[in-house]
Design goal:
The longest helix is centred in the middle third of the chain and has 14 residues, at 88-101. The protein has helices spanning 26-35, 55-61, 88-101, 119-129, 156-165, 189-200, 217-222, 234-239, 251-258; strands at residues 6-10, 39-44, 65-68, 73-76, 79-83, 104-109, 112-116, 136-137, 150-153, 169-170, 179-184, 207-211, 225-228, 242-243. Strand 13 (225-228), helix 8 (234-239) and strand 14 form a beta-alpha-beta unit. The radius of gyration is 18 Å and the shape is globular. By secondary structure, the protein is an alpha/beta fold. The strands form 2 sheets. An 8-stranded mixed beta sheet has the order 5-4-3-2-1-12-13-14.
Length: 264
């Protein structure tokens, strides 16, 4: 295997992918191409990048490895190198509670969407894109599927309520505060980064991680250098080694320059 100097890890939403344009800024695209000369490029996201609404961004970034679903699925090319599935009893209890409380909870698997109370998902799509083209399937089929993480669409009060009821789970809010990832306590992007360090034979100290929201907290803490975007949530900025400019103000490019990450 080719050896490179470091691993540079990027969250996708609001770190590489702007939610105001739904594009990766040109400066970030240029940064990725320059980094590729001497660094392994990793995507570390709450998404499953193999889903229908994420594949195009995977093709744009062309990562060497992907930490999907907050560390519960890791791939290098077409090779699955790690997978963790949520406990079935825990999943059943959580779904029953969410259903009783009217919480929109579920996931997208491949090209299909499985959500309890999907009206919040539909409303979020309409706010974002002006329409919702999803064909929602029976969410209770999730009990017979390999569920790694879930997504909650709703306000922070709902996430805090479920977190209190289920201490085995964490509910890091999305940057826009319109929902949260639902992840078992032991899973994180940071653990995914450690697994890819072993795979690519790169010491953890030679890693740089970029992020903007609370599911990036552990990976910014554990990476050799943690970079918070200017548009990050305040708690992430508090623990970052470096705070760059907003995604809309060439944040990725500016941080790469400031940290001397480009090959001379």
């Amino acid at each position: 295997m080719e050896q490179k100097k470091r691993i540079v890890s990027f969250d996708l939403d609001q770190t590489l992918l702007s939610h105001s344009t739904w594009k990766i800024p040109d400066s970030a695209v240029w940064a990725l191409e320059k980094l590729r000369q001497s660094s392994w490029i990793i995507l570390a996201t709450g998404r499953d990048m193999d889903n229908y609404y994420s594949r195009e961004f995977k093709e744009m970034v062309r990562p060497d490895g992907i930490i999907h679903l907050n560390g519960t699925k890791i791939t290098v090319g077409n090779q699955l190198i790690y997978e963790h599935v949520m406990d079935k009893d825990l999943l059943l209890k959580l779904m029953k509670y969410a259903d009783e409380k009217g919480y929109s909870l579920g996931l997208t698997a491949g090209d299909e969407d499985y959500y309890l109370h999907p009206e919040e998902v539909r409303a979020a799509d309409i706010r974002r894109w002006g329409e919702c083209g999803r064909q929602f399937k029976d969410p209770w089929k999730l009990l017979h599927m390999k569920v790694k993480t879930l997504a909650y669409l709703g306000n922070e009060a709902g996430a805090l309520d479920m977190e209190k009821q289920f201490p085995q789970l964490k509910f890091p809010m999305f940057a826009g505060k319109e929902g949260a990832d639902v992840v078992e306590i032991e899973a994180s992007k940071a653990e995914g980064l450690k697994r890819l360090c072993a795979y690519f034979n790169v010491p953890l100290r030679d890693t740089v991680a970029f992020g903007d929201s609370m599911n990036d907290y552990e990976i910014l803490m554990e990476a050799g250098t943690g970079v918070a975007m200017g548009n990050s949530v305040p708690k992430l900025k508090e623990i970052a080694d470096y705070i760059t400019t907003d995604i809309e103000e060439d944040g990725v490019w500016n941080a790469c320059l400031a940290l001397n990450l480009f090959e001379k």
